[in-house]
Each structure stands twice: as structure tokens, then as C-alpha cells.
Write a structure and sequence with these properties.
Blueprint lengths: L1 E5 L11 H4 L5 H9 L4 E11 L2 H6 L12 E10 L7 E8 L19 H4 L8 E7 L4 E9 L2 E9 L1 H4 L9
Parallel strand pairs: 1-5
Antiparallel strand pairs: 2-3, 3-4, 4-7, 5-6, 6-7
Length: 171
């Protein structure tokens, strides 16, 4: 089950961007179709970070656990399509308790798009999504439930992508 919420800003996303903000399955797959080639992933940061109170709330942490320090594996990347400029800036947040069993491989992605792992067996995953405008552009922030493990991926569509967004999604 998926749910999407548009945050309470007075702006609305450009009509051409709406299908991209609302992709239910692998954003990687539809971006690669648009690019006509595999995405290039440039890692900006990858490592452990302490979660902020807001991040804990966004991940669904409740009660006394909100006041406890919580570490997560954080991966920040820029995704390049068929352009010299990045299309998407993405941040993945995996709370350490979610990185057990097969999910440990999410710490070993290196230059691989995360969509290759998350959507390998299922076309869609249960999620909750917020779409909002940030100082960098339109963002979709999605909390996923992957085999009972909760994590969050935020993707910001950058100007290089927006200049080409008028092309429809070929699914």
C-alpha cells in the first residue's frame, strides 16, 4: 500500500514533473529509460550518522525512543542520466536496526543504484511519500517498508532534469 502527501506549500510541482514525483516502483528504472543508458552514481557521502529528531519522526520512531540516540547508515549520491550535470540528488537513510540479514548489502552498494536491490523481486514496495519544494528543487521523500525494515529515501529533482522533464515516462 502506498500513500502520497503533498506538503503544505503554496507552490505546486510543474505538471511535467508530477509523473516522476509519483513513480511507485523503481525511479532508477524509469530514469534509465529516459536516459537511454544506465545511470551513473556519484557518491557524495556514505557512512554512519546520528539521526535527528525530525528524521526519527519521519521514520516512524515513537515514544521514548525519540529521545534515544540512534545511528543510521546514510548514503548521499548524485544520479546522472545522459547529461554532464546531475539529474537527481538522493539521500538514503537506513537505521542500524533495519540493516540485518540480507539488508546488510545495502551498505555495500558502492556505485550501484539502490533501485537495483530494492526492486529486484517486487515492482513496488509499501511506502509513505511526501512531496515538497526545497531550496534545491522538488523533493519526494519516501519511507519504505522492505521486508519489515523501515528506511527513507529522499530524491530532489535538479535543474538539469527539469529542463528535460517534459518528456513522458515510458513504462
Amino acid at each position: 500500500m502506498s500513500s502520497t502527501h503533498l506538503s503544505s506549500t503554496h507552490l505546486s510541482p510543474p505538471v511535467a514533473l508530477l509523473p516522476w514525483l509519483n513513480v511507485d516502483g523503481s525511479l532508477t528504472a524509469v530514469l534509465e529509460v529516459k536516459a537511454g543508458q544506465p545511470l551513473r552514481v556519484e557518491r557524495v557521502f556514505e557512512g554512519y550518522r546520528r539521526l535527528t529528531l525530525l528524521q526519527k519522526k519521519q521514520l516512524g520512531v515513537q515514544g521514548a525512543m525519540l529521545n534515544q540516540p540512534m545511528l543510521a547508515w546514510v548514503r548521499e549520491v548524485q544520479l546522472y542520466g545522459n547529461d554532464e550535470r546531475p539529474w537527481v540528488k538522493a539521500q538514503s537513510i537506513f537505521p542500524l536496526p533495519s540493516l540485518t540479514g540480507r539488508a546488510r548489502r545495502l551498505q555495500q552498494l558502492k556505485g550501484m543504484p539502490i533501485g537495483y536491490v530494492l526492486f529486484k523481486r517486487k515492482r513496488t514496495l509499501p511506502n509513505q511519500r511526501i512531496i515538497q519544494h526545497t531550496s534545491e528543487g522538488w523533493q519526494r521523500q519516501t519511507r519504505y517498508d522492505w521486508y519489515g525494515r523501515k528506511f527513507m529515501i529522499s530524491e530532489i529533482f535538479l535543474p538539469a532534469f527539469l529542463s528535460n522533464a517534459a518528456e513522458p515516462i515510458d513504462e
